[in-house]
Amino acid sequence: MSAPLPFNDLKAQYTALQAQLDAAAQRALASGWYILGRECRAFEEEFAAYCGAVDCAGVNSGTDALSLALRACDIGPGDEVITVSHTAVATVAAIRNAGATPVLADIDPATFTLDVQDAAARVTPRTRAIIPVHLYGQAATMDEVLNLAQAHGLRVIEDCAQAHGAAYHGQIVGTLGDLGCFSFYPTKNLGALGDGGAVVSRDAELIERVRRLREYGWTPAERYVSQIEGTNSRLDEVQAALLRVKLPLLDEWNERRRALAARYDQLLPPVLIRPTEGTGNYHVYHLYVVRIPSEAGMSRDALRDALAEQGIATAIHYPVPVHRQPAYASLFGDLALPVTETIAAQILSLPLHPLLETRDIQRAAEALDKLLP
Q1: pLDDT of 168-206, one tens digit each?
Q2: Between 95 and which of 102, 118, 144, 170 could a Cys-Cys bridge form, CB atoms 3.0 to 4.6 Å apart?
Q3: Could you tell me the domains of the chain?
Q4: What pLDDT is attached to residue 94?
Q5: What is the per-residue pLDDT for 220?
Q6: Is-contact 123 74, C-beta < 8 A?
Q7: Contacts (Cβ under 8 Å, ≥6 apart) of 324
């Protein structure tokens, strides 16, 4: 049997950058300042410049980035926020953490991002914001999202957790709406070696509100005095230093992801439905997700098991839509999202990361070709 083909390989990335990462961590450790110091501020400035934002606030996770962004916009109890059910549960958890009510819309069957027409039908007098999720590495249809938001006076908070460096009609995601929220979970296109997150914006006042909220409502001038109710959500110095090593490599890694995705497109058996790159999108392929239709003659789960027997690891992002999760069943009741539910039963994520070899793509494709008609 061939050597295992892992779904991801974080150790390989560390090994490739070990000298730089170790030096950055040592620099942060030797500084004697471990929370909101020079490394965090330098990373904030560098990431803001990369995104084309006015400023950036580092926080401790992508989930907190979303909830603090909502709170910075004074969105909370009694307010509704429209988003999708086909997402990491963190998107909805963040809305709940802010005290607001999530309202879930269906998705486009080709791109799996927000169906804006369906979202428009769910706007009520209580709706205050929309969170489009830039899923798997590409942006939602942001022109439609922004038009809907403008028509109803809504805030737009972008969930960019899977889309570092993705662009929509030439503009980097995170700067299209009011606030853009990123996760630096280790598997992301730009990942820390632990948890981390950030909020970016072209509105300096909103970022300043996020900064106050991330540290108990304090300001630099009045430390230990809470003018607003905040929390503790700070990007630590070591993670910021590590992210500074990786950020200059992000574009190169994204191009590599795109090249590997193109190879999958060429080699996979025709019965598999490949990812669709939406109009105006620069897709950075955080994940390469195919659909297994009924014509394949094999269920998604059976196919996954067959690949696993050959040492090829896959994943499902995501098997259970949020409105069908046990923790949220009482919140959404009998909500029906037909496209979301169909997609969830058919999708499979194939191995894809920047250090993957072309021969690995070939191996996965050949295995699929033998298993499928």
Answers
A1: 999 999 999 999 999 999 999 999 999 999 999 999 999
A2: 102
A3: 10-248 (3.40.640.10), 249-371 (3.90.1150.10)
A4: 98
A5: 82
A6: no
A7: 85, 341
